[in-house]
Amino acid sequence: MNGVVVDRIRHEANAKLDLKRKSDLGQFMTPYGIAEFMASLFSTGGQPVVLLDAGAGVGSLTIAASRKLLPERVEAWEIDPVMRSYLQINMESLGVPYEIHAKDFIHDSVDRIQFDMGTRFTHAILNPPYKKINSFSQHRRVLSDLGIETVNLYTAFLALTILQMTFVRRWPR
Ligand SMILES: C[S@@+](CC[C@H](N)C(=O)[O-])C[C@H]1O[C@@H](n2cnc3c(N)ncnc32)[C@H](O)[C@@H]1O
Asked: Residue 168 — pLDDT band, cuts 50, 70, 90?
């Protein structure tokens, strides 16, 4: 699948999004050319690559990163079923072993980190939703349980991604 096709799929998915939900979930997708540029910044160091994509959308970032890194496994989180249906098609065509988590990345990651479960990753590529976290929300509370105090989903996604990388000591210390 070339970049033109990936971008066509991105536009098709975008046209199906509910406008209110699009704003609530920060569903603004990355053009394939930008995804390719982001992926070009990776190096593998010759080690097997296990890739994380949090809030994967239709999977443009994962496709670009997979072409550069040839990962042995990819795990992608995406909460929205419209996005996920396209993501599934894109992942199938990629030919890399993958798992799509149809879950809220924040809640799922907090569980994985607290209970020391799930995969640890060598590489991550993400364009998280940029959205305020309400002070009294569940997201704020569970993040606080991990010692992450932030008021934006973007930084929450980054913190939780870093805590699931192979080089980070397991929780709790
Ligand atoms: C800014 S878009 C980026 C999409 C894709 N990574 C890209 O760059 O084209 C953020 C994505 O995160 C998803 N998302 C928002 N909140 C989420 C959550 N709590 N857990 C998992 N995915 C979420 C949205 O549905 C959306 O697809």
From this structure: low
Mean pLDDT of 123-128: 98
Domain 3-162 class, CATH top level = alpha beta
Cα dihedral sign for 134, 129, 104, 8? positive
For the Cβ of 78 lying below 6 angstroms from any atom of ligand 1, the answer is yes
Q: Is the pTM of this model over 0.85?
A: yes
Tell which one of 16, 60, 79 to mutate to probe ligand 1, the residue whose CB is within 8 A of the most ligand atoms. Answer: 79
Listed in order, strand segments (DSSP E) in the chain are: 50-54, 73-77, 98-101, 123-124
Enumerate the domain spans of the chain: 3-162
Phi-psi region of 57 (alpha: psi -120 to 50; beta: other; left: phi over 0): left
Q: How far is CA 122 from CA 46, 76, 150, in A?
A: 11, 14, 24
